[in-house]
Amino acid sequence: MAPRLFACFGVKGSSTSTTTGKGISGHNAAVVAADVPVGDGPVLVQLFSSQGCKTSPEAEMLVSRLGRGDFDGKIRRDGGSSGSPAMVLVFHVDYWDYLGWKDPYGSSQWTVRQKAYIEALNQDTMFTPQFVVQGRVQLLGNEEETLLKSIVEAPRFPSPAFRATFQRPTSETLQVSLTGALRMKVDSSGIDIMVALYENSLVNDCPRGENSGRVLSNDYVVRKLEKLCTVKDLTAKKTVSETAHFTVWDGFNSAKCGVAVFLQNTSLQIFGTQSFQLPDEI
């Protein structure tokens, strides 16, 4: 395998490449039933980013606008559901930390996830900012129109019909219990049900590195990611019931956090999404 290269790209002087690849009760508990779209479910848009990359803040601003629905009118298909057409998650990688600023949300786990997409989508270079749409298409993170077009053209799948129960067994832990049907048939190849815990409204002064002197704002930042379970040979109406366990971070504030559920295969292609806002007090 060829050596991996790293790059931090901006719009000027760069080209954009789009490639298609292969119920609990107890202390501090809350139950949430998310709206399930009647038609197609949201498309998962993943951004691989870093506070150590000079061009990532622009992509972060774009993904924040996408997440709050600023582009819904452009990306909603005719006859589509009333829910948001896109669900966004931001993974901060750690390979730019050597430039002088250690990203407080960076993780080698997210670098490994990006590398898996680079390989699955037949790319040679790991770069930031990078969007991956529905696990099938990748593109430069600052190309707004290309991103919106990719979302419109992405395959869509029914959202799971999960009911979520949130519980804090201790001040350091969070349990997310999901019960419901996937609303899609799963064959013997199987599918992983993933649960991401993300945080919004993050603001940091950046005193060093390529973004030295800037105030950086980040939303939909994945802080934790767990595999709920793997299912095989499942009918669309079969009920799945499992619990994900998270260790929360210092300063955890449920009012700023949400949970994203998505189904992925071994090639990290996405087959269904659903999201929940955490209760303000849990």
UniProtKB/TrEMBL annotation:
Pfam families linked: DUF1223
* Source species, domain of life: Eukaryota
Q: What is this protein called?
A: Thioredoxin-like superfamily
Q: Which organism does this record belong to? A: Arabidopsis thaliana x Arabidopsis arenosa
